[in-house]
Amino acid sequence: MIYITRRERFNAAHRLFKPDFTDDQNLKLFGKCSNPNWHGHNYDLHVTIKGEVNPETGFLVNLSSLSSIIRKQVIDKLDHRNINLDVDFMQGKYASTEMLAISIWEQLEPEVKKLGALLHRIRVQESENNYVEFFG
Amino acid sequence: MIYITRRERFNAAHRLFKPDFTDDQNLKLFGKCSNPNWHGHNYDLHVTIKGEVNPETGFLVNLSSLSSIIRKQVIDKLDHRNINLDVDFMQGKYASTEMLAISIWEQLEPEVKKLGALLHRIRVQESENNYVEFFG
Amino acid sequence: MIYITRRERFNAAHRLFKPDFTDDQNLKLFGKCSNPNWHGHNYDLHVTIKGEVNPETGFLVNLSSLSSIIRKQVIDKLDHRNINLDVDFMQGKYASTEMLAISIWEQLEPEVKKLGALLHRIRVQESENNYVEFFG
Amino acid sequence: MIYITRRERFNAAHRLFKPDFTDDQNLKLFGKCSNPNWHGHNYDLHVTIKGEVNPETGFLVNLSSLSSIIRKQVIDKLDHRNINLDVDFMQGKYASTEMLAISIWEQLEPEVKKLGALLHRIRVQESENNYVEFFG
Amino acid sequence: MIYITRRERFNAAHRLFKPDFTDDQNLKLFGKCSNPNWHGHNYDLHVTIKGEVNPETGFLVNLSSLSSIIRKQVIDKLDHRNINLDVDFMQGKYASTEMLAISIWEQLEPEVKKLGALLHRIRVQESENNYVEFFG
Amino acid sequence: MIYITRRERFNAAHRLFKPDFTDDQNLKLFGKCSNPNWHGHNYDLHVTIKGEVNPETGFLVNLSSLSSIIRKQVIDKLDHRNINLDVDFMQGKYASTEMLAISIWEQLEPEVKKLGALLHRIRVQESENNYVEFFG
Which of A7, A83, A113, D14 is the one with CA 20 to 30 A from E25? Predict the structure, then answer.
């Protein structure tokens, strides 16, 4: 069993808030992340897949196929977007790093299977000091 | 003459657009950076000052004083904010990295002088692939 | 189950040595790390916790609460200190990266539990070439 | 149980290709990585070992011993070399990151055991966007 | 006057050698960089241009135009190539980082002028420990 | 004229203090950097030299010669040492980053000249947030 990780990046705006809270209540719960006019990040996404090395090619999957899937399912929808407003697979969810990681897993898990590998881990890094990992 | 650089960081949302353009016109000129619902970045700010080493202390300026000035004049106004909507010193300007660098220079230049040093360079890094420098 | 990692940093002096060894014996066993006049590092600390996403907030724990705990229990005691001489929870122990990781685990494990999560991993990075991980 | 990771680096040329394929067939399967005149990378190698902390020394193994083993068994053979042509332990194999990770494991696993520890993970990073991990 | 830097990357093989030297003579002069079977690097290219901010757009040049020029004139010719054998603008030159920086300057200087800016600096980073800068 | 930068690293302990001050007075002036029991850093040293490319070799100087000089004149004296107590060229000086940069310049300037190049810049990075540059 071998594990391969591909990094992709996206830059997006977001806001943490409960829709039924006032701005003051949201400020108390989410701090400066609740700013009503949004803020944003350069997100690093690490997608780790696993499987057997193909003896005919020496690789697990073609990395450019993996990259294409990540771009189509995830990056094209998130990059230079507002996570709360613009992203179909984030509708009705908190735009937290935790929910991003879980939702990106759901976007990629069936597609990775079609490549002949298994999704192992989604890692979303929001800043140099914080990242979230989800293993399904 | 010695040069000291202090790095600070801020996370902000922004949008590149001309107010008298339609969304389509802005999209043509600014690309995906014109998304009407905003996007965002983790910005790295490098502030370089210059001057003589103080023989009584062995340093140019006290770095925590420099850091306080940067935080008060720049970071507290930009961090977790919308550059177009929330930042007093960016009103009526494009929220480009170029205009950020020039405007941050204006915010810091007189304050650095009060510390007994000269502002030498403002560097604003918007992503791992792009940064802007302004020398006054 | 979701995993969140918070990075904090501390700068400290230390020395590797056995108190009942001569300087020459320590030099032979620990190399240049045994310098009697100390040396030091910029340490990177990565604290990984795990648990369920809170459906009321979209996050596992409030990251600023986690950061506060790490600062109070660990960083304030280690930063700009001598690990051998100044740090209560390192008394009577080797000031190795291994012992740091284990001791930081002990400092944080009960506090993370009070936040409603579980400590998963302590990672202490001493240089760009070496790091230690402890999982309890 | 404690885990220690040592990073070493090597710069090497390689090519991905099937010897019984034409250049065009290889181009179709391996893309630009099949360039007949080779290309190359700065590889980062992370070697993670595990074991108990030695109560007599406060460390798992002497890191300079670990570094020596990695240099002798792996780096000296790969650094500033052509992976396909110059490296004894890569003969008859694809010069992929996957096969590198598996082959480096085989080079190091018995040597780490002699140090009194167990090899836990080999991680080979080919670029800032891709890395492979092998756990035996 | 404002300065903007764009980073691009390329992975390439090369060899340092004098064609009229024996392998032993080249080994003595260039060390392991003279390996006859080539070695390679992940190169980081930083292109810095300068000029006035366009008051109609808030930027110096459109960064995607700059990126396109760099890719067409430089990256497409170097990436996944052998610098000595495959690159038209390196023919008859040493494949050193110094000569790469000078040659990339020549490739880009007239094209940047067409964009309405001036080329200020080419920086080529061969490894985390070495880089070369050329200012024309 | 071409510029080449070589990075080397050293890990050292130090303390900022005036010998004729009490600990309290030093604490007031230098903050936590005055801890009487020392603290320490992983220092990054960037040495930039300049000159003409040698048409016989394609390089400015042999980088391994430059690295040897830096190691002999600077790194071997600073690495795993106490800057205040152990380093001959820092005696009687403040162990500040500013004084380090100036003193390292003095150590290297004549030696670089012997290599046939000119020293252009010393950059000493004390942490990811601070660095000092000296140009002679």
Answer: D14
